[in-house]
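Researcher: Next entry in the queue.
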Amino acid sequence: MPFRAFDTGLPGVLLVEPQAFGDARGLFYESWHARDFAAMGIDLPFVQDNHSVSSGGVLRGLHYQREQVQGKLVRVIAGEIFDVAVDVRRSSSHFGRWTGQFLSADNRRQLWVPPGFAHGFLVVSDRAEVLYKTTDYYAPQHERVIAWNDPAIGIEWPLRALESPFPDDPEAPRQASNPGPTLSARDRAGLPLAQAEVFP
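Model: Structure for this entry, 200 residues:
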């Protein structure tokens, strides 16, 4: 099988690593294969592919759709992100738990975020391009946002990665110590988990 699946500590959420074949010309790998993914337990049909381009320090999330519920298969083709899934099913014994994984163009890893989980990511490189497949169509009327920094969840975002690597270099761009992420207005208005409309 040209893929390996790793447990993330959060049941249902999988880290998937493809087998790459390289030589002096470059490399080749399969990023998705229906039969192989079904063998790993990822057997929902994908209906939409999305391509997100973000600058360093951008945080997107935590997003989910309350209806037309989406599973997401996330990978990075340029740069690096810290990718997060949060269980938002009240009936789950893991409700409110999270897992975070570094995905990059170099490690070629993918994160499977099943339906019933909120998703978000922080760009830790200067720029990142993220591709993700979804199991249902985007429906903005059903989208909900949980606050990225809700202490009840306690996600350990790697914000130190946003600091200038040359703090004493006068020619380096000035950045505050432990700067906060760049957020959209929608994400700044995210609700705490306790107030969010989650799944039963």
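Model: The helical segments are 34-39, 185-188.
Researcher: Noted, moving on.
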